[in-house]
Write a structure and sequence with these properties.
There is one protein chain. The protein is built from twelve helices and 20 strands. It is elongated. It folds into two domains: about 220 residues, no CATH class; about 130 residues, no CATH class. A hairpin with a 7-residue loop joins strand 3 and strand 4. About 5% of the residues have low confidence. Helix 11 packs across helix 12. About 35% of the residues lie in helices and about 25% in strands. The relative contact order is 0.08. By secondary structure, the protein is of the alpha+beta class.
Length: about 400
């Protein structure tokens, strides 16, 4: 149910709950005076309208998430009779925090924190609604960093045919004011519930149009791998190009490199965060794993495979592309390999000696993610396809055991 409908249901029904002083906001309307039944009911004065409640909700969502690190808190606005100190009773708005259909069970310290949040959210005019904060944004199977969104929105043009619509980067994030005038404080006017609802429908429509337009644009930037002000080393190492001042994206498309990281932005961000490893796709049959490992294996380096990828450290895009070409050029002719698990790296010299003594010179070692985590394997490619793999493995293991015992 959208917020506009929640307001229609919750705000204007009969007073139905006790006041919680920690939930009460400074927003109120006067209680209508009693009149004879045949006379018109006088319109009550109010210091808020329904749009102000929408703004308040967006601010409280940000504040509760910052304080309590919970993104599923919602707010039910209720009219309750309450009096501050010696003031007359009024119908105050109470903002009740909920998860699902249950009010949050807050201890005294949390109640005081929440009271401070209400005070912070209402100490400035309730005119700018929070459209984007640092909350992560989900789009299809992507999770887009809220901080990244705020950074790129600085560079995405904000266009509106309505000159009264304003936007800013404020304390809560990217904020938009679709109210037809700028408030200088809480308005003081008669409360007109049903016109307020009609106006709120219009305001929500405007905010939705703006949000959808900006979402479409920053999702497009995200898929292109846009980053803001990367270092010169990142720009040069990974071949980035400027699309605007301070705004860069990858100058190449190669899904073999970026897809294992779930896309172009995640890949380039991993470089910015200091990662040196890439995941390059390989055929996962044992013969191809052996031949790929042979390209890189030496006494100082043992290759590592993760699922269906070669995990290898690289310095830049040029080196990564060079490795991919080497993998592409590996022979795919039929072969046979003897592969077995090795318990410790200190046994590698022994296995190597025994294999060579058996004229098995095509031997490599590599790591592979297995049932028990990262496991070390010995692999020998056999020159004679008629040899029995299990016999070869048992012979190597027996001879090595005698050698090291």
């Amino acid at each position: 149910m959208d917020f506009c409908n929640i307001i229609k249901i919750e705000l204007f029904k009969t007073i139905m709950t006790e006041a919680n002083p920690y939930f009460v906001t400074p927003l109120y309307r006067d209680i209508p005076a009693q009149t004879p039944s045949l006379q018109p009911i006088p319109v009550s004065k109010s210091n808020y309208n329904i749009y102000n409640l929408y703004v308040l909700r967006t601010r409280l969502e940000v504040l509760t998430r910052r304080q309590w690190h919970h993104s599923d808190i919602h707010f039910i606005f209720e009219s309750i009779e309450y009096a501050f100190n010696d003031e007359p009773k009024r119908l105050y708005i109470q903002a009740r925090p909920t998860i699902g259909d249950k009010t949050l069970d807050l201890n005294l310290a949390q109640l005081k924190q929440y009271q401070a949040m209400i005070k912070a959210a209402t100490n400035t005019p309730l005119d700018y609604a929070v459209m984007f904060s640092n909350k992560d944004y989900r789009y299809e199977d992507l999770v887009i960093s809220g901080d990244w969104i705020l950074n790129v929105l600085v560079y995405i043009p904000f266009t509106s045919q309505d000159p009264t619509i304003k936007h800013r980067f404020g304390e809560y994030g990217f904020e938009v004011n679709v109210y037809p005038y700028n408030n200088t404080g809480y308005p003081s006017y008669p409360a007109d519930d049903y016109n307020d609802i009609k106006n709120l429908d219009d305001y929500i429509g405007k905010l939705t149009d703006i949000r959808v337009a900006l979402e479409n644009e920053f999702v497009r930037w995200f898929k292109r791998g846009v980053v803001i002000e990367p270092t010169t080393d990142i720009i040069q190492s990974w071949d980035l190009k400027a699309i605007k001042p301070k705004v860069y994206q990858l100058n190449w498309i190669d899904r073999r490199i970026t897809d294992p990281f779930n896309g172009r932005w995640y890949f380039i961000n991993s470089r910015i965060m200091g990662s040196k490893s890439v995941l390059l796709p390989v055929d996962s049959n044992l013969v191809m794993l052996h031949r790929v490992a042979k390209l890189f294996y030496n006494q100082e380096y043992i290759p590592s495979f993760y699922i269906k990828y070669l995990k290898i450290k690289v310095q830049n895009y040029k080196e990564t592309n060079s490795i991919l070409k080497k993998i592409e050029n590996i022979s795919d002719e039929i072969g046979k390999v003897a592969v077995f698990r090795v318990t410790m790296t200190k046994f590698i010299p022994a296995y190597t000696k025994i294999a060579k003594d058996m004229d098995l010179n095509n031997i490599v070692f590599y790591y592979r993610d297995g049932v028990y985590g990262k496991e070390l394997f010995c692999s020998c490619e056999l020159s004679d396809l008629d040899l029995d793999v299990q016999i070869i493995i048992h012979k190597i293991q027996r001879q090595t055991l005698k050698y090291i015992s």
